[in-house]
Amino acid sequence: MNYSKTTTVKDFTLLNDTQANQQISQNIESRYQWERTYENLPGHVKGVPRGEGFSIFKIFIFLFTAIKGVIGLLTAQFLHLFPYLWGKFKKGEIVFTGTADLGLIKIFADFNNWNSLEEFNEFFKPWTFFQRPDVAKNWQSDIEFGRQRLNGMNPVLIRKCKAEDINPGGKFAVTNKIINPVRGKNIDLTSALAENRLFILDYPIFDNITTAELSDQLGRYIQSSISLFYVDEQKQLVPIAIQLEEKISTENDIVKKIFTPNSLPEEWAVAKLAVAGADAAYQGMISHLLYTHLIIEPFAVTTNRKLSPQHILYQLLKPHFFNTLPINNMARNVFLGRGGLFDNVGSVGYVGYNRALNRAYNGINHNSEASENQTEGLNFYELALPYDLGKREVKELPNYYYRDDALLIWNAIKKYVDDVLRSHYKNDAEIIGDRQLQNWKDELLDNGNIKGLLTPDKSNQLNTLDDLIEIATIIIFTATAQHSAVNFGQYDYAGWIPNNPFAIYKPFLDVFKSESQNKATLPERLPNRFQSIVQIVLVKALTIAPPYSSKSLATLRNPFSDPVAKQAFQKFQTNLREIETKISVRNASVSQPYTYLLPSKIAQSIAI
Questions:
Q1: How far apart are CA 203 and CA 225, in angstroms?
Q2: How far is CA 465 from CA 426, 443, 445, in A?
Q3: Between 215 and 518, where is the model more confident?
Q4: What residue ranges are annotated as transmembrane (predicted)?
Q5: Cα Rg for the chain, rounded, in angstroms?
Q6: In the prediction, which pLDDT does 251 show?
């Protein structure tokens, strides 16, 4: 009788515990609800869950930075009024008429335009609160143009050139005759290929991204440019050929033209500007937004929904999701909708960037989209840094500080993740038997719309500890180092508008007509003064770095309750300090230090 009674009490206790856990799980899942606004992209959370919002301090810092910047740049614009009117007066162009506007519209018609590149300096005075980016000193040089492909705000696209890339009968028909001489000497492309001196930068994702009619309606133009770079004797990466293309008829006949440093200086400058515009568009939409912000959000949502706070993976990952949900919610509301910033100041407008995001995530289907290049979609496992570097074949590319520093951070994170997870899981059977972990994986594939979580041979079956270590390493690296590398350089390179304009506002057809006497100057192609204000303020606000936006990797608090995992975190911090010293020593010996992957400057999460 007593035994039976005791069993009944125990059963009730277990039942109550189960019901309580189910209730807690339901409450959490009701806070973190899925919403599929964009069916072809990674899933995202509905709204901003309670407890995930920005702090008052962070909101103040963000608004203060933006408002101060707007006031400063509008002050510069106001001060521009006086020399502008004086210039008009001297030319006799201030004439009031009897029309309803007294001729004011005609007088102020070009007030918002740039007349010269030197005028951009007006936005970087003491009263504007903006420091002029260092790149303004030498942004027009070929050496600086090449350096930015390695260590600028989008250092993730350069790849080794292959023979088929520059086949005379192919898409990019570069020959020795076209490019020579290169910086005062002749080179042989075949020999340069064999010596691993040639590298390619291309943007097949932008092939036919908009129609000619849509570009004209937007008044913004983008090129699916192809650039060839050469590693010279000083181990500098320099551009030696850039191909642009233009539709020359309503039937979409396309003419292609290759520009080199031997072209007319103004034409070479326009060709480099076209590359810079495409690079800025790719960085904003793909490298930054899609491949860090959007791809990490499903992991943040699923971790909260399917793992308990006591779970080792929850404790490992949670610090790297800090403020990701509210910043992504802001991005969807401010950037992505019709009438948003991408629509109003981006190269391709609402239709174009939605098409670009879909192509980047799902690939191009040749049966439905016209493109000369096959563009593959994103598989999550391809975000692993060693995989990406191997695919681009850039191991021997000199002075590639992004690669060198990123590998240091990747290896440190992987060692840390390995130590933590192996202290908890003793074998693969425990991975298979962890119900929370398996539910986490299933949720990512289903509601999270994560593709290629594991390599194809794994069939998305999370059966080994090694696979979990790889997944967790990719998550943490992407949310920390990779995001920092493609985010925090935006003001340094896009704050100086001629270097990386968000959009180009004149078509390129004039540079294809050698006989044309009406070639647009560089300032005419750039965002106007008010559009430039938007870009400068935006990149300044988006680059608010630790400690104001979040903690850094170097200042992160120990997230674990388990003593062994705590010790692994402490070892990780020691490793990061050693990396900080190593990078700092290297930076002290180079003319232009690369600082975005110093552990003290890597944000703990995608928090801005």
A1: 6
A2: 9, 19, 19
A3: 215
A4: 59-86
A5: 27
A6: 57
Reference 402, options 577, 204, 155, 160; nearest CA is 155
**525, two tokens:** 């192609």
In terms of Cα–Cα distance, which of 373, 349, 34, 7 is closest to 225? Answer: 373
Structure tokens at 388: 């990406």
Q: Which amino acid is it at 131?
A: Q
- Rounded Cα distance, 383 and 164, in Å: 25
At 236-247, the pLDDT tens digits run 999 999 999 876
Residues 6+ apart with CB under 8 A from 76: 122, 123, 125, 127, 128
CB distance 85 to 502 below 8 Å: no
Q: What is the 3-state secondary structure (H, E, C) of 418-475?
A: HHHHHHHCCCHHHHHHCHHHHHHHHHHHHCCCCCCCCCHHHCCCCCCHHHHHHHHHHH
**Mean pLDDT, residues 520-536 taken together:** 94
Contact 466, 126 (CB under 8 A): no
Nearest partner of 478 among 382, 580, 555, judged by Cα: 382
Say which residues have a Cβ less than 8 Å from residue 571's Cβ, sequence separation at least 6. Answer: 415, 416, 419
Integer Cα distance of 271 and 257 in angstroms: 10
CB 393 within 8 A of CB 159: yes
Preceding amide of 498 cis, omega within 30:
no
Residue 97's pLDDT is 60
**Considering the entire predicted model, what is its pTM?**
0.92
Instruction: Say how far apart CA 472 and CA 238 lie, in whole Å.
Output: 37
- Name which of 157-161, 211-215, 352-356, 382-386 the model is least confident about: 211-215
CA 368 from chain centre, in angstroms, equals: 27
CB 475, CB 42: distance < 8 Å: no
Between CA 169 and CA 492 the distance in angstroms is: 39
The number of residues making up the chain comes to 608
Q: At what angle do helices 401-424 and 385-392 cross, to 10 degrees?
A: 140
Q: How far apart are CA 204 and CA 364, in angstroms?
A: 10
> Residue 276: pLDDT above 60?
yes
Q: Burial, 223: exposed, middle or buried (Cβ in 10 Å; 0-12, 13-18, 19+)?
A: buried
The residues, ordered by sequence, that sit 6+ positions from 42 with a Cβ below 8 Å of its Cβ are: 294, 295, 297, 298, 361, 448, 449, 450
C-alpha span between 170 and 164 (Å, rounded)? 7
Higher-pLDDT residue of 418, 37:
418
Strands (E), 126-176: 159-160
pLDDT score at 213: 86
Backbone phi, then psi, for 58, in 5-degree steps?
Answer: -70, -40
